[in-house]
Design brief:
Ribonucleotide Reductase Protein R1, domain 1, two-stranded antiparallel ribbon, Fumarase C, Chain B, domain 1, Fumarase C, Chain A, domain 2
């Protein structure tokens, strides 16, 4: 029996009936549908709609549905169920007869799907926070192991200044910790319970919404029934945050690909996460990294799909909202599958410290340090920049580094160059020069590593608290 068929005299077109069903994909919401149904059943018993015996029958039947779904995948092969809500009602009727139909008293599928999706998003965020903590800790482990190894930092893809390898890796840690805080914020806004909102105007019974919310671990009930049944901001915010997380993963992957090329040689691709060529025997291709970049596009597409679906949609519930489910599922699945793989990659990738250090010590990347040397001696910054630029041009002409220019050559450019100039150009001296919080001076990077470890540990602590 359909959940809505009383008003109709003609059957649905068979093709349309099959086409409009969502059970093929929303059956994954079954655990949340069952949990929300138990909370609603308890509220119905408290409101006097169900007897204690009927409540016991319904709760037992809901548990049996969960058990069968877990133990027998064929149990979910129901060609008649429109959606997960219809499936549960059908199974209740099979098990306990007319009492099963009592469960839908005072509620609507509009509030049910809004509740189920919020529970799914909340659960996914809790899973993701743990995976992000694993990922961040893998990066921190490599940063710690890098010690005082240095590498070039780039602007415009041109060598700019030397930095510690740990400082470079910590830049990614900052990105992913920001993603984690965005997910935590999204969870707070999603963690309100639509149950009791009815179809649009609120339940027709005096249901204890606070009790239902508390039973499901929500912070409280939603404030407005119209908004509650039509709101998908939480889903949109969730997928937008995942798309930004994927974007950061894509930037990391792109840079690792670049640094693994022979032109750089900073990274040796780990074989467990690479593949070869069917034609060229010598190839080792960065397939994991390339797929991370590619899947980021899919995640961004999920966010655009949700934005487009909701744009201009009148209040309250519209069937269009059924189409919001698959982008949410797809985005969550993609990131949850991706994070353990990039974590494994980061744990096994090899960095060529010698080549990175050599690249950090050449290419005039000490030029700003040279200008800073003149500034310390009272030369205005712009004039110091000009003088060092001329020194670089002379060194290029002679095919040497700044360190190889004689004092006489330097003083011919500017009289403030003196005998101490050459000693400020070494890699250690240049790194130490950036002695500000957030800079690459070793003492600040050491502090930044400790701070990042504490924040990653706090992230895991928050995840554990949320899932209790």
């Amino acid at each position: 029996m359909k959940m809505w068929s009383g008003r109709f005299r003609e059957p649905l077109d068979p093709e349309f009936e099959r086409w409009q069903r969502s059970f093929a994909y929303d059956q994954r919401l079954l655990p949340y549908e069952l949990a929300a149904s138990r909370a609603h059943a308890n509220a119905l018993e408290h409101a006097g709609v169900l007897s204690s015996e009927e409540l016991s029958e319904i709760v037992k039947a809901l548990g049996e549905i969960a058990r069968r779904a877990e133990s027998d995948p064929a149990f979910l092969n129901d060609p008649e169920a429109e959606d997960v809500h219809h499936f549960v009602e059908k199974q209740l009727a099979v098990q306990i007869g007319a009492t099963g139909y009592k469960l839908h008293t005072g509620r609507s599928r509009n509030e049910q799907i809004a509740t189920d999706l919020r529970l799914f998003v909340r659960d996914s965020i809790d899973t993701l926070q743990n995976l992000i903590a694993d990922w961040v800790e893998a990066i921190l482990s490599r940063a710690d192991a890098a010690g005082n190894a240095a590498m070039p930092a780039y602007t415009h893809l041109q060598p700019a200044e030397p930095v510690l390898v740990a400082h470079w890796l910590l830049a990614y840690v900052e990105m992913f910790l920001r993603d984690a805080t965005r997910l935590a914020d999204c969870r707070k806004r999603a963690n309100l319970c639509p149950l009791g909102s009815g179809a649009v105007a609120g339940a027709t019974l005096s249901l204890n919404r606070q009790a239902m919310a508390a039973e499901l671990g929500f912070d409280g009930p939603t404030a407005n029934s119209i908004d509650a049944t039509s709101d998908r901001d939480f889903a949109l915010e969730f997928v937008q945050t995942l798309s930004l997380l994927a974007l950061h993963l894509s930037r990391w992957a792109g840079e690792m690909i670049l640094f693994s090329t022979p032109a750089y040689g900073f990274v040796e691709l780990p074989e467990p996460y690479s593949t070869g060529s069917s034609a060229m025997p010598q190839k080792k291709n960065p397939d994991l990294l390339e797929l991370v970049r590619g899947k980021a596009a899919r995640l961004m597409g999920c966010a655009v799909t949700l934005e487009t679906l909701v744009k201009g949609l009148p209040l309250a519930y519209n069937k269009d909202l059924q189409e919001t489910q698959e982008p949410v599922f797809n985005a969550a699945d993609a990131i949850i599958a991706m994070l353990p793989l990039v974590t494994g990659f980061m744990n096994t990738v090899e960095f060529n410290d010698a080549k990175m250090n050599q690249a950090a010590s050449s290419g005039f990347m000490n030029a700003w340090a040279a200008a800073a040397y003149l500034v310390e001696r009272g030369v205005p910054s712009r004039l110091a920049h000009e003088a060092v630029g001329k020194a670089v041009a002379l060194a290029v002409e002679r095919g040497c580094d700044l360190q190889k220019l004689s004092l006489a050559d330097l003083q011919a450019i500017h009289p403030s160059f003196d005998a101490g100039f050459h000693s400020c150009l070494g890699l250690t001296e240049v790194l130490t020069l950036h002695d500000v919080p957030g800079g690459t001076a070793p003492r600040h990077v050491k502090r930044a590593l400790q701070n990042a470890r504490e924040r990653a540990a706090a992230l895991r602590a928050v995840e554990q608290t949320a899932t209790r």
